[in-house]
Every structure is written in C-alpha cells, then in structure tokens.
Amino acid sequence: MGRPGLNRRQLLAGIGGLTVAGSFGFAALGTGADALASSASTRVRYWNLFSGGDGYNMIAMLDAFRKEHPGIDVKDSTLQWGSPFYTKLAMAAAGNRAPDLGVMHLGRVTGFSPGRLLDPWDVGLLAKYGVKEADFNPALWKRAVIGGKLYALPLDIHVQLCFYRKDVLKKTGLIGDDGRLVPVTSTDEWFDMLKEAKKATRKGLQTIGLWVNDQNFQWWFFVAFYTQLGGTWFNADNTEVTFDTDKATQVLEFLRQHVADGYANPGMGSVGAEQFVNGTPFTWEGNWSVPVFSGAKLEYGATPLPPVFGKQATHAESHSFVLPHQAGRGGATNEGAHQLAAYVVKHARQWAAGGHIPAYTPTLSTAAYKKLSPQNEYVSAMDHQANEPKVWFAGSTGILAQRIGPIVVSSTLGSARPQAVARRMKGVLAQLLAMKNPMDGKTAAQGGAAA
Questions:
Q1: CA–CA separation, 379 and 374 (whole Å)
Q2: Could you tell me which residues come within 8 angstroms of residue 97 by beta carbon, excluding any fewer than 6 positions away?
Q3: What is the pTM of this model?
Q4: How big is the CA angle at 303 (ends 302 and 304), to the nearest 5 degrees?
C-alpha cells in the first residue's frame, strides 16, 4: 500500500474496501488462493503485498478475472508489506522458486538486479492483451524501462495528498465557489491559510497532521518540495552528487515552520488521520486514506501537496507488476501471467476506488472515473510526479529512505539545524553512491548503463 503498517487504519480501510468493491459490482470477498479450478488448464502463482482495502479490491479483481477466464487458475498469496516481502521475493528468484507474477514498488525495481532476479516483459504479448506503451504516462513508462527493456508494468501511482475538511473550513473563506480549497502558490500563502484554519480548529486538535515523527513520510514530503524547487540528486552517470544544500535548506525550514509555529504537534505526530476524522482541518497523507475518510462519511477534499515553491510536484510511487526470474520462464504459464497483469491494469477503475490513480490512462478519461470524488480532484498528480532518483538504493522504504528519513525528522522536530541537516544529507548521498548493491555487487555508477 505504499506505507508502513498501520493496523487500525488498515482495518478501517478494509471496511472501506468492502464498500468500494461492492459499489463496482464485484464480490468483496472471493476465492483467494483456492484449489485449482476443475476446468483450468493453466495455473498462475501470484505474490502481492496488498492488505486492508487494497487487499479486498485486489481479491475482487482477481475473482472477476477467474470468472472471465476459467482456463486460468490464479493462486494468489499476500505477503507482509515492506522489507520482508522483498527479501522473500529475492530469495525465491535466486533459488528458482519464484512465482509467475509479482508486485513491486517501481522505485525498487532498479535495485532488484533486473535481468538476474527479474525477467523482462514481452511487450508484444502485453499488446496482444490490449496493453501498450501509448496507454501510459511517458515518464511513468520510462521509469519502468531498464537497459532498453520493460521490467515493470505500472498498475497505479500512489501520491501524498493534502486532505482538507470542507465542513470545518467553510466559514474561513478558504473554500472557493467551486467547493474546493482555494489554491496557494507560495509558502507565505500556505502559512496564511494555516493561520486562518487554526481559528476554526477545535481545542485539543492540531491544525495539520504531518507525521512529523515518521521517517518515511518526512522523506516523501521532502522529495516533493525539493522537486518543486528543481533540485537534483546525482549527475546522469551517477558518479557525482548534485544535491543542492541551499534548496534542501529551504525545504527543511518550510517543514520545520509547521511545528515551530504550532500548527503541527510532535506529540500527535502519528495520529493525523484519526485527528482528521475528529475535525482537524488538514492532514498530509497518502491517497490510501481515501477509503478511510470516505467510510467515515466526512465532508472533505484532497489535492496534491501545495505548490508552495511555484512548481507543481507531489511525491509519487507506483505499484507495478513484475516477472520474478524463472530459469524456464515461458509457455502457457508465462502467457497467463501477462494476460492476468494486463487484465488488472485495464480494469483499474475498481482499483481507483481505493484512492490510487490508475496508470492505464484510458481509465482516467472514463465517465465513471471522473465521477469519483475526491479522486477527480487530484488526478492531475499523474503529470507532475516527484520521484526518488533512479538508483539501486532508492524506492519505497528502501535504504535511501532509511538513511535520509531520520535526518529530515531531526530538522522538522527542531533537534538539528536545517543547514547542518542539508549538509549531512549530501554526505549520506555520497556514501550511498559509493556503496555496492548486494544484489549484484555494483555501485550506482557501475549499474548506470542499465538504469
């Protein structure tokens, strides 16, 4: 789901998933990993990391595929989100025990030794089942190509959003005539907005939930605003750090000001979603919170993170289908894996109900998708994604986030000065650039041609 385990919210999202799956005519609870269907001649083993509402929606989509394709039995297994999933997938691929189809965050693909632990997609076979490059955002498709071959088939992008309570803010003048949050284009305008919102905030609630103690969220927010400033990470050959400490300091000071001015409370850093349900005007959360807030019947909206530095950019990752390496990949099973992945990607309107933006762009122009709220308010994020650098140590909860995230947190909480933190971040980036990928023993520069 693109974030650390959140047990209570996963439960709420699961309840929301029952609603959204049913609203599209799918059974919310299905056969899952049932025995091989009597009429099936091909079995496709599929590993994923979807729980909560995402899990319910995926099961519904798999059951729809089974119904339409009785000759293919899908044996799906849901594994623990995060590092345990990637470790098990790597071991299975290395030991020739890999499933026929898997899911990965797109940012992790470069580090997964494509060509060794992952097999490339047959784009001709995908086209046979109705999926082609022209159906995807060009930047998203390019991220999935390594060494000239497609190693990931994007299912969605999931983004960090600015959720806002319309009912709380309606008397502040911050909601426009169109019923949406008035736009801001600078840090001054943003903090003026928070100042007004604070007047409408009930006692005991913070004005905005920012996950100020969480290394993943703080890193994702940093990536978004650093991208807004046009910041870069490394040169094209991945031999030199181009990280701009002045721009980084601007971002760190911006994040810190939310705490320093009393809009975000460090003591409430991990309860932003819960407080939003209770009346907090704003929270920055991933789009996976849409089922939670919709299930709570809130009057709310959601926009991409505000373009306070003048350029639109919001942090984005992507759930993508991959082909874990198999020594004898091919035949009916491999074709079945291509057919299943293409089917799910093309039927991602149901997946969008869980908050994700479908990667298959024809879905975005359908009348059904345009009616989804608040999804129709932040769909533009597809065209201004802020991504981590395309290096082996990046990607969702990867080494980059583990090393840099806590440093960002130290600045946001005020335990370290932004300027010093920016310099420290550059030093860590230099260390990581020199490190070797344990998957193939190559540094980012040595694997640069492939990336």
A1: 9
A2: 91
A3: 0.90
A4: 135
| C-alpha separations of 262 from 169, 248, 251, 267 in Å | 18, 22, 18, 11
For residue 115, count other CB atoms closer than 10 A to its CB.
15
Q: Give the 3-state secondary structure of residue 114.
A: strand
Extract the tokens encoding 397: 């909860």
Strands 156-165 and 300-304: antiparallel
Q: Which two tokens stand for residue 139?
A: 């930047």
Top pLDDT among 323 and 113 is at 323
For 79, half-sphere exposure in the C-beta direction (CA atoms, 13 angstrom radius) is: 16
pLDDT greater at residue 12 or residue 85: 85
Element (H, E) at 30: none
| Residue 82: per-residue pLDDT | 75
Instruction: State yes or no: cis peptide before 374, omega within 30 of 0.
Output: yes
Question: What is the three-class DSSP state of 366?
Answer: coil
The CA R_g of the chain, rounded to the nearest whole Å, is 22
Cα separations in angstroms, 77 against 67, 214, 370: 19, 29, 32
Show Cβ contacts of residue 22 under 8 Å, excluding neighbours closer than 6 positions. Answer: 28
Distance of alpha carbon 192 from alpha carbon 263, whole angstroms = 11
Across the range 113-140, mean pLDDT stands at 96
Give the residue among 322, 316, 399 at the shortest CA–CA distance from 90.
Answer: 322
pLDDT greater at residue 449 or residue 404:
404
